[in-house]
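Researcher: Final request for today, and then I'll write up notes for the group meeting. The sequence and the SMILES for zinc ion follow.
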Amino acid sequence: MTVELKFAEELVDFIDRSPSPFHAVENVKHELLKNGFVELNLKERWNVEKEGKYFSVKNDSALIAFVVGKGDIEEDGFKLIGAHTDSPTFRIKPNPEMVEEGTYLRLNTEVYGGPIINTWLDRPLSIAGRVAIKGKDPFNPEVKFINIDKPLMIIPNLAIHMNRKINEGVKLNTQKETLPLVGMINDEFEKKDFLIKLLAKELNVSHEDIVDFDLYLYEYEKGSIVGLNNEFISCGKQDDLAMAHAGIKALINGEVGNSTNVVVLFDNEEVGSTTKQGAASPMLRTVLERICIALGKGREDFYRSLYNSFLISADMAHAVHPNYAEKQDPTNRPVLNGGPCIKISANQSYTTDSLSLTVYESICKCAGVPVQKFLNRSDERGGSTIGPISSTQIDISSVDIGNPLLGMHSIRELGGVKDHYYIYKSFVEYFK
Ligand SMILES: [Zn+2]
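Model: Predicted protein-zinc ion complex:
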């Protein structure tokens, strides 16, 4: 097996074990602990040392990991990689049980972010997330992560015989037509608190102690490598767990230079980032300042460190789609397995400028990694990412990059096997 294929399979395993942002952070945390990183509690006083390896977790769904450099932080600054842990999905509402025809049990959900909703139909789905359990102290509920690791439900399509126009395009109503079917019940008694009782059984707690939950649907089936020569990764949540995976691996395996290497994984990018664990929060700035303080530096040193820093905002990009080649910009045409894309936009929906582009392109050159450019068609708005939002909190030079993808926000996105290893190599080179 090639090193690229092995690394792509590691990504598919990582995503399979990360059905919610909480699980993604938990998996990253275990990987970091296994590799000698020390967890710092945000509520406690920090002690950090040069060449020390640390991380901190926010809201169980965001994480910042760093390796302190050998140099002086005010002179050598931070080398940052940013990515996000969340992906478009459906979130389960409180009191979700809904019975149809006195026997079909469905769960009430709402859309999280911007999924391609049609791709969620007719697939075995399950539930994962976080459950809040009554604690002894009202301010400190106990938290348990849960993954109902079985095909639990499905959103069935309507037969073509009942909608002859189905192949002309269907707009799905998200309160009515996308509710997952979870089982058949016989009476009201079974319906009452069905979900809470299921959670209680899985977690081995009393159902009266479960107060609330952050639960999301996910595709039960694991991703896979596909293509004649194993070229492609077919797997959901590559946006943006692929970048989180490559960034964390590079931080663990990379060398420590004079700069302090940082990987920040924000939550809530798909819903605008304006949460306490999102890129629009002061989370990153606060942590960077605390690193400086813990190293015995002052405020002036902290500000100097920022102006000596660089951020790679890593979020996936779009490859030319073979069936929709006209959808891409006419002169910048990234393809799968052609290497990472530098994302550029005149209206600065990406932070890249000619200088930061040159920095990343030079890093790729040193690493022997091909690089491509992604721009939206001039008559398409395109998406946004954490880079520009993070810039509202912290003014560090930055570049927006990401691997090319087909079908972004589909329940199964298609990425390139080689690209995943290319971007990892560029991150290792960057951290040197
Ligand atoms: Zn993304």
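Model: The radius of gyration is 22 Å. DSSP finds eleven helices and 20 strands in the chain.
Researcher: Thanks, that's everything.
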